[in-house]
Amino acid sequence: MAGGPFAVNKSRARRTAPVGPPPSAGGKPGPARAAEDLALIQRAVAGESEAQTRLFATHTPQLYRVALSVLRNKEDAEDAVQDTWRRAYSRLHTFEGRSSISTWLTRIAINSALMIRRRNKRLFQVSWRETPERDEGSLPAPVDDGPTPEESCRLAELHDLLAQQIHQLPSLILTAFLLRHVDEFTTAESVKLLGINSSALKSRVHRARQRLGQNLLRLLREDQQRNSSFTTRIASA
Questions:
Q1: What is the pLDDT of residue 119?
Q2: For residues 163 and 1, what is the distance between their CA atoms, to the nearest angstrom?
Q3: Cβ neighbours around 109 below 10 Å, total
Q4: CA 189, 181, 82, 42 torsion: positive or negative?
Q5: pLDDT for 14-62, tens place per residue?
Q6: CA–CA distance, 127 with 205 (Å, rounded to integer)
């Protein structure tokens, strides 16, 4: 995509991203707008450069504005927009028109921005927690009262399992869950980013939590059954 219609011109993205509410859909009725979007996407998927350029020019300002509201950093927001178009272009053929193309792209942009936000947070934490060099004669480090190696291994396994299950959630409820329970945005911030009301946000988060709980409980039970079966076979050997 580098150099093509979906490669972000960073200075242009900043200039064309106005502050304020997103532009209107031009007054077109919902079904007509949806049909036009779907036709445009089909042309873009077919490789028509004019359609790709039109998609990019129409939606990049709003995507940049959303990413900037999450990241509060222009360079990071530009990276998020670039990643949004990369991911969106690879998935355009899956777009079915169940939501508007703007809503679909916005969800991708929010997820891209949240990934960058978490990456930056981890880098800061690693830097912050680096152990300084100890001068000669200074007191030794205190005894570590943290988890044992076995406990750490089990916690890491559970963390990986949870992360896998979170990212298997449908995108509609995934984004709401990430905003509220992973990246800790407030309800007000989340509804503003998603363009929905608080009731819809709570419903999506509840559905995500419910599905996660059901899936994790099922997987843990299956793991317990496998371990029990293995122990039985060893004992009877």
A1: 86
A2: 29
A3: 29
A4: negative
A5: 444 433 334 334 444 467 777 888 888 999 999 999 999 999 999 999 9
A6: 32
According to the CATH classification, is domain 1-21+31-126 in 1.10.1740.10? yes
Note the pTM of the prediction, 2 decimals: 0.61
According to DSSP, residue 93 is labeled G
What tens digit of pLDDT does each residue of 10-20 get? 544 444 443 33
Under 8 Å between Cβ of 8 and 78: yes
Fold of 152-237: Arc Repressor Mutant, subunit A (1.10.10)
- Please, which residues have CB within 8 angstroms of residue 105's CB and are 6 or more apart in sequence? 59, 62, 63, 84, 88
Is 105 within 8 Å of 59 (Cβ atoms)?
yes
What distance in Å separates the CA atoms of residue 177 and residue 207, rounded to the nearest whole number?
9
